[in-house]
Design brief:
Layout lengths: L2 E5 L2 E6 L12 E6 L3 E2 L4 E10 L6 E8 L10 E3 L4 E9 L12 E13 L6 E12 L4 E8 L10 E8 L5 E7 L4 E7 L4
Parallel strand pairs: 4-10
Antiparallel strand pairs: 1-2, 3-5, 5-8, 6-7, 6-9, 9-10, 11-12, 13-14
Length: about 190
Amino acid sequence: AFADYYWLGGGPETKSDPANVICEPPLLTVTKEGELEAKVGDIITYDVTATNDSASVALTNCVATDTLPGVTLPAPFDLAPLATYPFSYDYTVPAGPPVVPGDPDTLPNTARVDCDVVGTADGEVWDDADWSVNLFEIDGNMTKICRPETVNVDEEICWDITVNNTGDKDFTCLIDDPKAGINESKLVTAGG
C-alpha cells in the first residue's frame, strides 16, 4: 500500500510501510486570551487552549511555553484526535519603565505549544498565539487652597479644591472634608 504522509519540516512523501503511514497531516491550533487593559500591580489571567484539529493523528508530549517570565505552565500533556486542552495562568504586571500617559504602552506576549506526533520517529508540530495588553496609569493630584489666606475667628472662608488627572484613564474621586463641609464624588477625566 502506498500513501502520502506529512510531518513538520517535510511535505508529502510516499511510504510503502502501512504501519507508519499517516494519511492526514497533524494540525495543532493554539488560542490565547486575557485582559485588554491593565496597570502595574494588576494580575492578568490568560486563558490558552491547545486543540488537535486532526481527526486521526494523536499528539503527545505537548509542552507549553510563554514569552512572559515567571508564569506557571502545565506539565506536558497529550492530545487525542480532535481533543482540546485548556489551561490558564496568571501574570502580575511588574513595575518597570514608567507608563507614559497618552503613549501606546503595551505588554505583548506569546504562548506556544510544541507536540510530538504519535507514530513518527521525529515528527513534531507547533503553534502559537499572541496577545497584547494595553498598559495604563491612574495618577493624579489634588490641591486645596484657603481664601483668604489669613482669617480671623468667626470669619467666613472659602476652599478651592482642584483635582488633576494626569493618567490615562478617567477615575472617580471622593472628596471628604468634614471641616470644609464637603463629601462629594466627582468624575475626573484623563488629562483633566
